[in-house]
């Protein structure tokens, strides 16, 4: 008979307020009936982690940081039947019940039963994590920059134990969001043209998705010249650095496409002024722009004529990927090394050096910072 799980004392990266991050000793309680407690093995930094310490998506502090990562289940609640101790899992911030109206639809990944947790709490509106007697909030539905974390079992995906841990972390959010935007949201067609604004991990995922689904011209746009080589590694055919020209990014895209613009554009930066640019870069009448970049602004400017002339703008969470059925496909492709994910791995830190990671992400040659949790 297995022993009853007890509270665990461990280390985690905690944000006490805007910009105030410290590694603290915390307490992680045992999982409740439908939950699992996970020993994190590897985590990584996504742009949303940067915005979270700036107050987006919420300002519930103290906050246990991190939402990308992979770990092994340490204990399970007594109602969990599809997972067991020792399983390697990816925490997700969106679930998939496979039964609600949205899940059975082919139109959206926004599960109504297990939605995005904007409050930073588990589905029962409580937390299993505390620091100095205070409740700890998550960024979304989990906290991966912690040696141990608790998540509802419906927000984790079991993966093959032989998968590369860093690569599994990359596809837990950033890369998969971009890949999904090309695959599930834009629905890139064979022979089409695609523009990708921003060549971080999300943008490189979008480039990879566009290539995999048959785009013949993939234009990457970034002000960082060092991203040219990374983009080409994932399938980019053309590179635009807007800082090299007095023209707008959309004008430069049109110059490469006989004045027409592209079939699809994918905005990955979260820079508000690029929303209109991403639309203007697409074809009049049929162009489709996917917005996946997240900044801290809640109201975005949009040029009237950019969308009035028949273009489509679509917002997206997690690139339109369903957290079980679609993410499992991405995991399989990752396991088969169909993506050059090693190109994303540029820096590594320990949990104790988490504040160093925030400096590393500012460096021009940085794509992903891996946090070694072991």
From TrEMBL:
Its cofactor is Zn(2+). Keywords: Metal-binding, NAD, Oxidoreductase, Zinc. It comes from the Eukaryota. Gene3D superfamilies: Medium-chain alcohol dehydrogenases, catalytic domain, NAD(P)-binding Rossmann-like Domain. InterPro entries: ADH-like_C, ADH-like_N, ADH_Zn_CS, ER, GroES-like_sf, NAD(P)-bd_dom_sf. The keyword Zinc applies. GO terms for molecular function: metal ion binding; oxidoreductase activity. Residues 17-371 form the Enoyl reductase (ER) domain. PROSITE patterns: ADH_ZINC. SMART domains: PKS_ER. Homodimer. PANTHER family: ALCOHOL DEHYDROGENASE, ALCOHOL DEHYDROGENASE-RELATED. Belongs to the zinc-containing alcohol dehydrogenase family. Class-IV subfamily. This is Enoyl reductase (ER) domain-containing protein. It comes from Flemingia macrophylla.
């Amino acid at each position: 008979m297995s022993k009853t799980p007890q509270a665990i004392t461990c280390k985690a990266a905690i944000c006490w307020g805007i910009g105030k991050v410290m590694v603290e000793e915390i307490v992680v309680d045992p999982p409740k009936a439908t939950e699992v407690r996970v020993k994190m093995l590897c985590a990584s930094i996504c742009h949303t982690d940067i915005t979270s310490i700036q107050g987006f998506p919420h300002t519930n502090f103290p906050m246990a940081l991190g939402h990308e990562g992979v770990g092994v289940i340490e204990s399970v609640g007594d109602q969990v039947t599809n997972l067991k101790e020792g399983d390697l899992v990816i925490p997700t911030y969106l679930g998939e019940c496979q039964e609600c109206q949205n899940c059975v639809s082919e139109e959206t990944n926004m599960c109504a039963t297990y939605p995005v947790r904007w409050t930073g709490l588990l589905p029962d509106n409580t937390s299993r994590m505390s620091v100095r007697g205070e409740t700890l909030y998550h960024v979304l539905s989990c906290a991966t920059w912690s040696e141990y974390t608790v998540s509802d079992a419906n927000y984790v995906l079991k993966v093959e134990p032989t998968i590369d841990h860093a690569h599994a972390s990359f596809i837990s959010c950033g890369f998969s969001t971009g890949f999904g935007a090309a695959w599930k949201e834009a629905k890139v067609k064979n022979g089409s043209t695609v523009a990708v604004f921003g060549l971080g991990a999300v943008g490189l995922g979008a480039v990879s998705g566009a290539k995999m689904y048959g785009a013949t011209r993939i234009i990457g746009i970034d002000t960082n010249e060092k991203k040219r080589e990374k983009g080409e590694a994932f399938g980019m055919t053309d590179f635009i650095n807007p800082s090299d020209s007095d023209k707008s990014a959309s004008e430069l895209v049109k110059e490469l496409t006989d004045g027409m613009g592209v079939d699809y554009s994918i905005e990955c930066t979260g820079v508000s002024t690029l929303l209109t640019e991403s639309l203007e870069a697409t074809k009049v009448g049929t162009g489709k722009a996917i917005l996946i970049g997240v900044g801290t602004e809640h109201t975005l400017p949009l040029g009237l004529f950019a969308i009035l002339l028949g273009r489509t703008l679509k917002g997206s969470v997690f690139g339109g990927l369903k957290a079980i059925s679609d993410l499992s496909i991405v995991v399989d492709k990752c396991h088969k090394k169909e993506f050059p994910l090693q190109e994303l791995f540029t820096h590594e830190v320990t949990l104790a050096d988490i504040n160093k990671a925030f400096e590393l992400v500012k460096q021009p040659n940085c794509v992903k910072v891996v946090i070694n949790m072991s």
